[in-house]
């Protein structure tokens, strides 16, 4: 880790005036600094800022500095959000990591984290060795010739399914951005990962009220039971009346370069009977446009099965 200066502002205004890299829980930033992937000369400890609070009175509002474990345990938080958090990292990390930091975490691509190898996200124009190299954990959706790294956040997948937005503050004011629009596809500029502008901070996450999201879940398939990133995951909320699907929200993770909303699957579910057959038919549309690599073609059928499993879990069907 290279030397750096540390400041700890007491107000949002003071923090926004600092030119350094924000530090909240530090569970991602410190790791990357130790690896010399990130080498900020100034770090701004933002933990004293008043960016906390959880409000479930009308939808869901979460302060950016709330800890993951506190949000997961809070009564009234949508099940899909709580379950996504509880399946993230370890208990110790969830006790430290902030909501804003979780949404801003960087990819776990091994090439990105190894400064001895090329990586277009870390060093634009240097190449993407994952495309022809070790790519079992990499994306099949939203990829480009410049980057195939998956987005690592479980929470972001759940929030995208629920149409959440992030509130961003700067010295010039504030703005709101849908989380689905906040993350950028890699295209030719994979180093630009989000819509966060210089001098901005995430202040809170806002989820609109969705009463039927009380029937929601998050299913995560991974190589081991805990402390592992997803091979495929599905965040699903479902409204069912008289054994038919009235409405649905579906987003997936572990398979795409950004949290991946699936409106085509949602449309196929609406009006359909709540049966395994209907769920399988809808899920078969999930991987449209997929570009499997040499070692991750298994993610296409795995993605479909993961969605069906989540739907069956919500409707009392048998597991896959």
UniProtKB/TrEMBL annotation:
Enzyme class: oxidoreductase
SUPFAM superfamilies reported for this sequence: CO dehydrogenase flavoprotein C-terminal domain-like, FAD-binding/transporter-associated domain-like
Signal sequence annotation: none
Stretches of the chain forming a coiled coil according to its record: none
InterPro entries, alphabetized: CO_DH_flav_C, CO_DH_flav_C_dom_sf, Diverse_Substr_Oxidored, FAD-bd_PCMH, FAD-bd_PCMH-like_sf, FAD-bd_PCMH_sub1, FAD-bd_PCMH_sub2, Mopterin_DH_FAD-bd
EC number annotated for this UniProt entry: 1.17.1.4
Superkingdom, natural source: Bacteria
The entry's keywords: Oxidoreductase
Boundaries of every FAD-binding PCMH-type domain copy: 1-212
GO molecular function: FAD binding; xanthine dehydrogenase activity
PANTHER family (alphabetical): OXIDOREDUCTASE, XANTHINE DEHYDROGENASE SUBUNIT C-RELATED
Protein name as annotated: Xanthine dehydrogenase YagS FAD-binding subunit
């Amino acid at each position: 880790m290279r030397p750096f200066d540390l400041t700890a502002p007491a107000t949002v205004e003071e923090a926004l005036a600092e030119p350094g890299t924000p530090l909240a829980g530090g569970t991602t930033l410190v790791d990357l600094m130790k690896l010399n992937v990130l080498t900020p000369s100034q770090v701004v400890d933002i933990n004293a800022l008043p960016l906390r609070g959880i409000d479930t009175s009308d939808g869901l509002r979460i302060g950016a500095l709330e800890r993951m474990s506190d949000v997961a345990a809070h009564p009234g938080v949508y099940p899909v959000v709580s379950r996504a958090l509880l399946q993230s990292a370890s208990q110790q990390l969830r006790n430290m990591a902030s909501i804003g930091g979780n949404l801003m975490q960087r990819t776990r691509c091994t090439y990105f984290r190894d400064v001895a190898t090329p990586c277009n996200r870390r060093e634009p124009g240097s190449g993407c060795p994952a495309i022809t190299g070790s790519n079992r954990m990499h994306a099949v959706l939203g990829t480009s010739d410049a980057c195939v790294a998956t987005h690592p956040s479980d929470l972001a997948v759940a929030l995208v399914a629920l149409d959440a937005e992030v509130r961003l503050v700067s010295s010039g004011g504030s703005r709101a951005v849908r989380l689905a629009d906040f993350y950028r596809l890699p295209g030719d500029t994979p180093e630009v990962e989000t819509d966060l502008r210089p001098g901005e901070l995430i202040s809170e996450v806002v989820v609109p009220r969705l009463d039927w999201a009380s029937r929601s879940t998050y299913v995560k398939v991974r190589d081991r039971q805990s402390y592992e990133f997803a091979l495929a995951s599905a965040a699903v909320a479902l409204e069912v009346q008289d054994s038919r699907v009235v409405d649905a929200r579906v987003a997936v993770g572990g398979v795409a370069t950004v949290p991946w909303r699936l409106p085509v699957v949602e449309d196929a579910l609406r009006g359909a009977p709540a049966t395994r057959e209907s769920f399988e038919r809808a899920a078969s549309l999930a991987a449209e446009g997929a570009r499997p690599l040499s070692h991750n073609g298994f993610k296409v059928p795995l993605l479909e099965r993961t969605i069906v499993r989540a739907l069956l879990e919500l409707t009392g069907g048998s597991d896959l």
